[in-house]
Write a structure and sequence with these properties.
Chain lengths: 194, 834
């Protein structure tokens, strides 16, 4: 695989992607390699099935949701630029903060990262995390260790903690506020993407 | 229950101090020296009634006195908060040591007491190290382990080498006159003073509250660099003995190898002892009372064994604590965990106090002081400068790899936090006078360095942190959503690493976690403990406990628990009495729309079996509420007499428990009955309605109940919401009481004792009740009043509030309990009754 993508010119819109996502050429090359590795039939795009091939991912409690995050609704395929754009959420912010204000907010800003996380919950994309949506995530993560009843209690309580306007659901703003003290930069960044 | 816990803690504290005395006692054998004269061999002429046998108790007595004196120093120092705010406690303790030393000097005209390496390394240091290992924030520690190791290994080597070489250079340049110190001896000196001291660092950094990453870097470094120090010290000590000529490449390589052996061997040994400890706690179910003892003994053994094998004892002890903490906390009974934590702190804090005091005392000794301005000042200067240089260079390299780079300010604090302490002093004293001619100069220089760093840098640290605006530790409140989210983040990062095909940090952590869950837990954890190993659930559990405690204490402060339901805020307490009952009432569980779960602590089985849940749906809650009250009352009045008679001493069991069991039994019995009636009631009326009126005002004040003070000041027992961390979601309908002043209990005096649930519910909805007004209107209660009022109380118990005093009367009638005459109304707490 390595030989097939030895230079940036192989990658469609390479330069533009670099500017957009802030990845270096080396990153893009690496990701492109990975992309091609996942793309077993060399179709040039990925399908959810390709992701499901990754064994660890299927064991991950939020794995399905992560895969879902790569595929916008009613879209069955994922091309390389979209792949990179999603991963850009996980690039550490680093020092190059000196972007000018006119540009749209990059994917790896605090808000960008949080939006990604928020979408993992918000499966029906109504802009709110309902009790059921939270419950599903909890059920996946806590699994059998906790009874259903306890799960519900936890979900209920978690919602109450964040729910400022008491509509029984967490909106993005409430979500953001509830995680005010969490070091998102640290929690949602991956080292090698730096 | 918490009170008992407190009391137990107090006992423990005493016990801990006593044990501390015991273990320090042998250590002073060498302290008592020539002054030990025997003059008690006078001839006995008859049976003495009282004899004064000072020699008999001298050593332990002196030890105990010294411990007492140093604790008293701390007591005096901590009583003056305005001073400790400016000068750190460790510095003050050293100064107290100076004074004490001065007194001894004045009395004996010689140094009769000082900190010896044996006392320090064998008795004072281990508790501190074990404590730091046991309380180590594991995740933080392992996430930053790479950086910590760099600082600890490379940093310490750098400090030692640069200081030794620079001093040697200055010596050659003639900066310090005539001194009989060779290069190797300089390096030896450099190595003993290179290490940042865990005791000193912890003492200072605990008070300044810097952000946790910075803290763990400095603290971790100070702990782990011991391996390096010990090796460097031993190697150079050997080199000095060998003499410069005989050192060849082989010896140097041996030295390097010995570093790895000492460091990794020590860590491994600690790991093994940690496993042993986990195993032991797995099987201590039947001897819970000495369970905590295992932790200390095994931890201490890990230290001693490492010392015996000439491995790094500190590393061994640290890793022992780090490895076992998770498992033993899960394995042991909750009380034992508390005990361990508390006793650990007692020992560590006590040792720390003594170390600083004794350091001060040791300094008052004319014989060790040798002054060489050049040597001492240059040492201070070089230590300071090289520390900064080392930190900057290493951080610069590390920052290229770190996810979140360390800022310049953090580096400054790290550099400034290079405090030296008693470890250096202990090593310096251990040097052989025959080999190193200038030992005394080195010892006094070490003391000066220690005093300078601890006192001067310690004092400056706090203003510096403020002035530089170092990121402080955020005092994060425990919230469930945050914990859940953190968990999601972890999974998410792993997933992303999987997708991008990188074996990164998160990948490794995930693999380790899986391995741990699969094997380590199976091996080291009680089967019952494994179940509750979920962090999110634990947080939930803790939050509930906190709420419950607040709830009860609020109730106590208001004189009763009635505040909680001033109007139609209905609480339904449900108690799961083991699975059997639980199974008989599936309907209850099914439609538990949940509001709040209180999980009572202190039960034997790890998965909390008592779970009180409140909802806002039925009236039955009121009865349960009464039960709680009556339970409380029974505890107060019924069992008290018996308890006094039953007081007995048992070494194996705490007597408190028996009392608790009684209470527990009553509680369960009444609860069981309530639950049955509750069940039948529910069957009778179908699924309960759920009140969904959430008053927004209250909702917004969530979740911190402490802050929302009663919105309606005119309420006497106003507002449950002001009460506790209570979930805002059950509706209080605040002000309901005021709005329905007509609904006074006295107006409907005759209501059947057993209100049909459906009726009762309707009644409930019909109007909220004012408890507080009744409370206001109520004349002071007396026993007679109680009897007179009893029917009224019963009749309205579904809607009305009741004073605690009411319940026994109610109980009495309803259940024909053979109660003693109704107790006087609870006096003190509720002033309004009087």
């Amino acid at each position: 695989m390595g030989s097939s993508s030895s230079s940036l010119s192989h990658i469609p819109d390479g330069q533009q992607l670099m500017g957009e996502t802030g990845f270096s050429a080396a990153h893009l090359l690496r990701l492109h390699e990975r992309f091609e590795l996942l793309d077993k039939d060399s179709r040039g795009h990925l399908r959810p099935e390709d992701f499901e091939e990754i064994r660890e991912l299927t064991e991950n409690p939020v794995g399905g949701r992560i895969i879902g995050a790569f595929f916008p609704p009613e879209k069955e395929t994922l091309d390389f630029p979209s792949f990179v754009r999603i991963l850009a959420h996980f690039r550490p912010t680093g020092k190059n903060r000196s972007r000018d204000r006119t540009q749209p907010e990059p994917a790896n800003s605090r808000t960008g990262k949080l939006k990604f996380a928020f979408k993992l919950y918000d499966q029906d994309r109504d802009g709110k995390i309902s009790r059921d949506e939270l419950l599903q995530v909890l059920r996946a993560m806590l699994g059998l260790q906790v009874t259903e009843e306890q799960l519900q209690s936890i979900a209920e309580r978690a919602i109450q903690e964040a729910d400022l306007n008491s509509d029984g659901a967490i909106s993005f703003d409430e979500f953001k506020k509830s995680l005010e003290k969490v070091d998102i930069e640290h929690k949602m960044s991956i080292r090698f993407l730096k | 229950m918490s009170l008992m816990g407190l009391r137990r803690h107090a006992d423990l504290w005493l016990l801990g101090s006593a044990m501390l005395l015991c273990c320090v006692s042998p250590l002073k054998a060498e302290v008592k020296n020539s002054e030990h004269e025997s003059h008690s061999n006078s001839n006995i002429t008859g049976i003495p009634i009282v004899t004064f046998k000072w020699e008999h108790v001298e050593t332990p007595y002196l030890v105990a006195l010294w411990v007492l004196v140093s604790f008293l120093c701390k007591l005096v120092i901590e009583a003056n908060h305005h001073v400790t705010n400016i000068i750190p406690e460790s510095a003050l303790l050293i100064c107290a040591g100076f004074i004490l030393g001065g007194i001894i000097w004045g009395a004996d005209l010689q140094q009769t007491f000082k900190l010896t390496p044996t006392v320090f390394f064998f008795y004072l240091l281990p508790p501190i190290i074990l404590d730091s290992g046991y309380h180590m924030p594991n995740k933080l520690f392992f996430t930053n382990l790479g950086a910590i190791l760099v600082y600890a290994v490379i940093g310490t080597c750098w400090n030692a080498a640069s200081l030794g070489l620079s001093l040697w250079g200055c010596h050659k340049g003639g900066a310090m006159g005539e001194l009989d110190i060779g290069l190797l001896q300089y390096l030896l000196f450099g190595s003993l003073i290179a290490a940042v001291d865990p005791v000193a660092v912890l003492a200072v950094f605990e008070q300044v509250h810097v952000n946790e990453v910075l803290f763990i870097l400095v603290f971790g470094e100070s702990l782990l660099n011991d391996g390096v120090t010990v090796v460097l010290f031993n190697v150079f000590d050997a080199f000095v003995t060998l003499g410069g000529a005989q050192i060849d490449a082989v010896e140097i390589i041996k030295g390097i190898i010995s570093f790895f052996v000492v460091a990794f061997g020590g860590s491994l040994l600690g790991f093994v002892f940690g496993l042993l400890m986990c195993f032991l706690t797995r099987c201590t179910k039947n001897i819970q009372i000495i369970e905590p003892g295992f932790i200390f003994v095994v931890g201490y053994l890990s230290y001693l064994t490492a010392e015996m094998l000439s491995l790094s004892a500190i590393l061994s002890c640290v890793f022992c604590g780090v490895c076992c903490q998770k498992y033993i906390n899960a394995n042991m009974n909750e009380n034992s965990v508390k005990t361990v934590k508390y006793a650990m702190k007692v020992f560590a804090n006590g040792s720390e106090t003594m170390i600083f005091v004794f350091l001060g005392i040791s300094a008052i000794d004319k014989t060790i002081w040798v002054w060489n301005t050049g040597f001492i000042l240059l040492t201070l200067l070089f230590i300071f400068i090289y520390r900064f240089i080392g930190v900057f260079i290493q951080t610069w390299i590390l920052n290229r790899f770190r996810l979140v780079p360390l800022e310049f300010i953090d580096q400054l604090i790290m550099g400034f936090g290079g405090l030296r302490g008693a470890v250096a002093y202990g090593l310096a004293v251990m040097m052989d006078e025959n080999k190193i001619k200038e030992k005394n100069l080195m010892v006094s220089t070490t003391l000066i360095v220690v005093f300078f760093t601890v006192i001067v840098q310690g004092i400056i640290m706090k203003p510096l942190v403020k002035w530089l605006k170092v990121k402080k530790a955020t005092e994060s409140e425990l919230t469930l959503i945050e914990k859940v989210q953190n968990r999601v983040f972890d999974h998410m990062l792993v997933a992303i690493e999987d997708i991008s095909g990188q074996i990164g940090h998160n990948y490794m952590r995930d693999k380790w976690k899986n391995f741990e869950e699969k094997w380590m837990m199976w091996l080291l954890m009680k089967p019952s403990a494994r179940k509750k190993q979920d962090h999110v659930f634990n947080v939930f559990h803790q939050l509930n406990l906190k709420d419950a405690v607040e709830y009860v204490s609020e109730g106590e402060s208001r004189g009763s628990l009635e505040f909680i339901r001033n109007d139609s805020a209905i609480i339904d307490f449900k108690k799961k009495l083991g699975e059997d009952i639980f199974d008989t009432m599936p309907d209850v569980t099914a439609d538990t729309s949940f509001d709040h779960g209180i999980v009572l602590p202190d039960r034997r089985d790890p998965v909390p079996s008592v779970s009180l849940e409140m909802h806002e749906q039925t009236m039955n809650g009121l009865r349960e509420m009464e039960d709680l009250n009556s339970h409380h009352l029974l505890q107060e009045h019924l069992y008290k007499g018996r308890k006094q008679h039953r007081h007995k001493f048992s070494r194996n069991h705490l007597t408190i428990n028996t009392d608790e069991d009684e209470v527990q039994e009553i509680f369960q019995r009444t609860m069981r009955r309530r639950l049955e009636s509750f069940k039948s009631a529910k069957m009778g009326m179908g699924p309960p309605k759920i009140i969904s009126k959430h008053t927004k005002k209250e909702q917004q004040k969530a979740p911190n109940g402490m802050k929302r003070n009663s919105g309606d000041e005119d309420f006497e027992f106003s507002e449950a919401d002001s009460a506790s961390g209570y979930d805002p979601s059950y509706s209080y309908r605040s002000g309901g009481g005021i709005e329905n002043p007509a609904f006074m209990a006295d107006l409907d005096p005759v209501v059947p004792v057993q209100i049909p649930p459906w009726l009762a519910e309707a009644e409930l909805y019909s109007g909220a009740v004012s408890p507080s007004q009744r409370a206001q209107a109520r004349p002071p209660l007396s026993a007679g009043d109680l009897r007179r009022l009893a029917p009224l109380r019963i009749s309205t118990r579904s809607t009305d509030s009741f004073m605690m005093a009411d319940i026994p009367a109610a109980e009495q009638r309803r259940d024909s309990f053979d109660l003693p005459p109704p107790p006087p109304p609870p006096p003190s707490k509720d002033g309004r009754h009087q």
